[in-house]
């Protein structure tokens, strides 16, 4: 920061109650009243230097005590005192912090060259041109101080000239940047980097008021000289500087933490940032868009702003990570922690765009790779939110079921999410468990996952039986046979889905019972030789043993006994619930 020192005399102003005066042997003959402060001063040297005071004192005699009210002087009493001290020759220090009020007050008092040579306005203009506009931070600080005197600053050209100076420096190639700047990115050590980062300017201008910041960004964008990513980074830095952080915790139950005034300011900043995001895809990250959407829910942004954020996030959704999506719910009425509704809205927006591109005609194109990537992303996300003990099953099912069949090459990730949810929510009813597990396609489960599912007592019996049937079918395919039991099981499954739930359960049990004991034992024999462990890790270990020729040491499982044991367990559970 640069300073300019004017005057050589010591400061002799002092205060008595609400009166400011200067030490002098000559009695005061000029009284200046500004707001609640009264200045007892002298016509000489003030009147010869100030054109306004000359006009106001023109009708008075030299011996008269003149009283003048200057309540409308820009900058108030502080700015007037700087001008008064200049007239007395008292030392004053000018900087970017006090230039604007001093310049506006000097213009108001008409301290120009036409009144007296070497007057205050001339010296202030010299300081402005040679020091403030030549400096980077000086221009920013000066521009920020104009918010207290916007009309005067606009009329005197201070705002325009500061903006022009700042934009000119922003457009300077990084290799030619020679002034100091603020850059505090995590992990960045200035001494270890010889080159100037391309976004060196973003942090300093984030200190500006929203209206001034908008002027800077608008001017920069109008030149088309900077890539959209740099403009997006400037918006990101400004958002982190001024918007509330909704990524760390839930909002408080009461809205007293933020006043209505601060909420309105946050809404205004948010809506401006959203409107200024460049249309180019990738100008901002999808993680930033999701955080803005979370903030929009918190501050109550307009539906137009939320819709635009959802649309932009949907366009870049496949670039998201699970960490980007783990945002706390901003509705205090929600008992669950994670904002799954936000993810659901963005997923729906993505799917609308995806379906418009006719993915059926391009099975091997980038559309299939895109939807598969989203499928893995959603399943990984569900595995995290499933641990939320207050997460409603309906919301989990809605998000998992929103994906088309082509989104999942296998159902291993979906199975893991379901298993986690069943583990964290042991009090689910049988109907709720069925609604959760009906999304599983047992044919898309890997052998390791099927081995885990067969022994998983959290799953509904119907799901376990389906896994056993498909396990038998996979074994039968190797021999070229299609057991009659599998055909009956499929007929039973289709009948169950069409009928009522009580009738479905009865038909399923009857179908299993109708098979003779010997036939059932013969058809399921192919499963007995397969080792099934209680968890996925052990199943994977067993797979390794099979590859080494050690599969004969695996434990034996009788599918018929599993079905009978689970039937007795479910009947006991139902009796317990009736009690």
UniProtKB/TrEMBL annotation:
Keywords: Ubl conjugation pathway. The keyword ATP-binding does not apply. It comes from the Eukaryota. GO terms for biological process: protein ubiquitination. Residues 517-550, 557-579 have a biased composition (Basic and acidic residues). SUPFAM superfamilies: POZ domain. Pathway: Protein modification; protein ubiquitination. Residues 476-579 are annotated as: Disordered. Residues 199-474 form the NPH3 domain. The keyword Lipid biosynthesis does not apply. InterPro entries: NPH3/RPT2-like (IPR043454), NPH3_dom (IPR027356), SKP1/BTB/POZ_sf (IPR011333). Belongs to the NPH3 family. This is BTB/POZ domain-containing protein At5g47800 isoform X3. It comes from Herrania umbratica.
């Amino acid at each position: 920061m640069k300073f300019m020192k004017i005057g050589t005399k010591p400061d002799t102003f002092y205060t008595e109650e609400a009166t400011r005066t200067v030490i002098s042997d000559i009695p005061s003959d000029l009284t200046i009243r500004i707001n609640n402060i009264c200045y007892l001063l002298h016509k000489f040297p003030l009147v010869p230097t100030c054109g306004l005071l000359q006009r106001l004192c023109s009708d008075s005699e030299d011996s008269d005590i003149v009283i003048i009210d200057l309540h409308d002087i820009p900058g108030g009493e502080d700015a007037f005192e700087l001008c008064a001290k200049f007239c007395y020759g008292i030392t004053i220090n000018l900087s970017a912090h006090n230039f604007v009020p001093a310049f506006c007050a000097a213009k108001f008092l008409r301290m120009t060259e036409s009144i007296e040579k070497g007057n205050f306005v001339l010296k202030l203009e010299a300081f402005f041109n040679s020091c403030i506009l030549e400096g980077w931070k000086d221009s920013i600080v000066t521009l920020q101080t104009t918010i207290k005197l916007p009309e005067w600053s606009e009329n005197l050209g201070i705002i325009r000239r500061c903006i022009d100076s700042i934009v000119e420096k922003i457009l300077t190639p990084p290799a030619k940047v020679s002034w100091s700047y603020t850059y505090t990115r995590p992990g960045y050590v200035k001494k270890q980097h010889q080159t100037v980062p391309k976004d060196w300017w973003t942090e300093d201008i984030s200190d500006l008021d929203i209206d001034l910041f908008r002027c800077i960004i608008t001017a920069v964008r109008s030149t088309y000289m900077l890539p959209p990513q740099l403009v997006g980074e400037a918006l990101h830095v400004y958002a982190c500087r001024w918007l509330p952080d909704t990524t760390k915790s839930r909002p408080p139950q009461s809205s007293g933490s933020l006043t209505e005034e601060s909420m309105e300011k946050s809404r205004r900043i948010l809506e401006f940032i959203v409107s200024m995001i460049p249309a180019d895809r990738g100008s901002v990250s999808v993680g930033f868009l999701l955080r803005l959407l979370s903030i929009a829910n918190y501050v109550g942004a307009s539906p137009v702003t939320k819709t635009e954020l959802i649309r932009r996030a949907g366009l870049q959704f496949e670039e998201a990570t699970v960490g980007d999506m783990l945002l706390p719910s901003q509705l205090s009425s929600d008992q669950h922690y994670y904002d799954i509704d936000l993810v659901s809205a963005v997923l729906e927006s993505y799917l609308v765009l995806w379906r418009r591109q006719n993915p059926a005609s391009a099975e091997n194109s980038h559309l299939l790779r895109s939807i598969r990537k989203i499928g893995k992303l959603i399943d990984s996300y569900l595995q995290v939110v499933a641990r939320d003990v207050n997460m409603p099953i309906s919301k989990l099912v809605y998000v998992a079921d929103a994906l088309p069949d082509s989104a999942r090459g296998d159902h291993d990730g979906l199975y893991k999410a379901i298993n986690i949810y069943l583990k964290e929510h042991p009090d689910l009813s049988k109907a709720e468990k069925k609604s959760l597990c009906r999304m599983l396609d047992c044919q898309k489960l890997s052998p390791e996952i099927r081995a885990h599912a067969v022994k998983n007592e959290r799953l509904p019996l119907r799901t376990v039986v389906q896994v056993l049937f498909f396990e038998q079918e996979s074994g039968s395919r190797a021999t070229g046979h299609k057991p009659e039991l599998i055909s009956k099981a499929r007929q039973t499954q289709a009948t169950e889905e069409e009928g009522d739930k009580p009738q479905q359960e009865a038909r399923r049990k009857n179908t299993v019972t109708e098979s003779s004991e010997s036939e059932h034992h013969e058809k399921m024999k192919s499963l007995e030789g397969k080792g099934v462990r209680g968890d996925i890790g052990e199943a994977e270990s067993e797979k390794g043993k099979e590859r080494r020729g050690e599969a004969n040491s695996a434990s034996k499982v009788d599918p018929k006994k599993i079905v009978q044991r689970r039937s007795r367990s479910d009947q006991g559970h139902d009796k317990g619930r009736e009690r």
